[in-house]
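Pasting two entries for a bug report.
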Amino acid sequence: MLVLSALVQPTVVRAQKPPGDAEARFSAGLTHLREGRAELALEEIKKAVSQDDKNPYFYKGLGQAYAQLRKWKDAIEAFRKSLQLNPYFVDVRNDLGMALILSGKREEGRKEFETAFSDPTNPTPEISARNLGQSYLEDKNYDEAIKWFRSSIARNKIYADPYLGESDALIATGHLDEAIAQLEAGVREAPSDPALLTGLGEVLLKAGRFTEARVQLESAIKKDPAGAWGRRAATVLKTVPK
């Protein structure tokens, strides 16, 4: 249902006020980054760094540009430099952990997520816990995956991703009814979330509860008619027996 690389997109950093036109370069780079022009983003952010090489925000942005290009070694180096300049920039640990995991250094990546989760200054501990859960899910360590997904939900009960991840882990271990119950709990917390509605519809379909599945999928389409989850719900709905 989910993949790690689609998991989590950390918040794009905001520029401080460095000297010269470094801020303008960085801002231009972030615009390119948000719009998927990673090569152009990299070019602009490199210029910003060359003008102000003591700014941890610039290095975070640099790492994100490298990560979009799947240049994991360079991304890891940039994120580590950001943390070196500002050890309290805890959000960078989510970026670093992701780059490490996607580069194949999964245990190192998980250590970064755990450090971020345990840091009391972390503004989004639910993302760190969700990333841990997803990494364990991909490694088929379902008990650890479920534990971390539940830790994520405990920190933010309207965050859809951990409900979906926990559902995948429960289904993989033969607990379909429990997966349905967890997704229903998520929908109660966030009744307008199309991801949760679609996820619940898919699992109800697996359980043969076709009428209920149809209701959830149709709700998802209404909530997100042009979005990715709405389109997914529409595709799944075509497979529901009438």
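Entry 2 (this is the one that rendered wrong in the viewer):
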Amino acid sequence: MLLVSAYKTVLEPSRSLIIWFTIGMIIAAFIIGIVVLARIRKTSVTTSKYLLVGIGLMAILFSLGRAVLLYHDYYASDEWDIFFWKIGSALVLAGLTSLAFTIEKFMFPKTKKLITIIGVACLVLIFFMDKTIATILLYVGNITVMLLPFCIYIYLAKISTGSGRRSALIIILGMILVLIGQLGGAVIFNLLKDMLASQLFGIFLSLFGLIFLAIGFIKTIAASSSR
């Protein structure tokens, strides 16, 4: 992982482009969260309400986490590197874990919340580990909490037809984009050594992933509520 001073070497106009696109993603993710939470009043199904809470929290915590990471990358000093990086990364992981929890509790209880427990464990442990180990834990946590929902909706896409299958495929696409957006930026940077390309790659994929997730879940909940 880079120290925050490494990000400050990014020259204009790349620096401004990254900052403004990141701010746009942060605002968009926050709006998605608020819009999803506002739909709670439109359903009377308890399970749907909790799923909407999980989706909304995921988007809002993702937004807050990315805001902290933006400050870490371009405004914080090196002595605050670990602190802000861990806080921002933990908020993003907490958002994904909240979604995994709602799915485990209300859609797939057979896992006994094991996925959520792993996500929470990684979330807590990163605050007690150095940056190298914490980075590994974040990769493990992010992949794990996305794995169960991904497998569930792969299964649903296979057994469903019509709008149910389309909604499941949209959700699967959203999960793939969010995961690649979160983890793929570092890979792009290591390959190309291009900060602008790696940052914009993560920004756009994560944002589109959140949009697809919100659309897919809302469609699924709307369909189940109308039955």
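Dev reply: Rendering is fixed now. As a check, the viewer should reflect this: The chain has a mean pLDDT of 85.
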